[in-house]
Write a structure and sequence with these properties.
31% helix, Small Protein B, Chain: A, alpha+beta, 154 residues, 4 helices, eight-stranded antiparallel beta sheet, 33% strand, globular
């Protein structure tokens, strides 16, 4: 899987395509990832998946859970666990804000994409999300189909 390059110089490793379908994204945050060496090599090779991944706030820290980074084939003994919890780097004020939003409003913290910046730092884009109901999903699909139809006609 080849990495794509965004307009602002980010090298996108993977995206969570289901997140925008299943959730309303209220706010977006950029967080750094604490990784081990073999995890960085696997990410550079665009070998990661955000399917079923989420973030939690525990003890004043934010952790990314269930993100799958497969083991690097070149490292035999010093390899990493593919679905381990990874610490995210955020400012204390951002962590407090996320904690309050999650506890009071019942929002979820969903990873939207993983990418490398121009300075080769691994980052994850988090979304503060509210779940969509089934009728919301159908409405979004109907709007998308109508937009595509009008683009075809013009």
């Amino acid at each position: 899987m080849a990495r794509s390059k965004d307009t602002d110089g980010r090298k996108v490793v993977c995206r969570n395509s289901r997140a925008l379908h299943d959730f309303f994204i209220d706010e977006r945050f950029e967080a750094g990832l604490v990784l081990r060496g073999t995890e960085v090599k696997a990410l550079r090779d665009a070998r990661a998946s955000l399917q079923d991944a989420y973030a939690t706030v525990e003890g004043g820290e934010v952790f990314l859970v269930n993100m799958n980074i497969p083991q690097w084939p070149g490292a035999a003994y010093f390899n990493h666990e593919p679905k381990r919890r990874r610490k995210l780097l955020l400012h204390a004020k951002q962590i407090h804000k996320l904690f309050v939003e999650i506890k009071q409003r019942g929002c979820s913290l969903i990873p939207l994409s993983v990418y490398f910046t121009e300075k080769n730092r691994a980052k994850v884009e988090l979304g503060l999300a509210r779940g969509k109901r089934k009728y919301d999903k159908r409405h979004a699909i109907r709007e998308r189909d109508e937009r595509r139809q009008s683009e075809r006609e013009s």
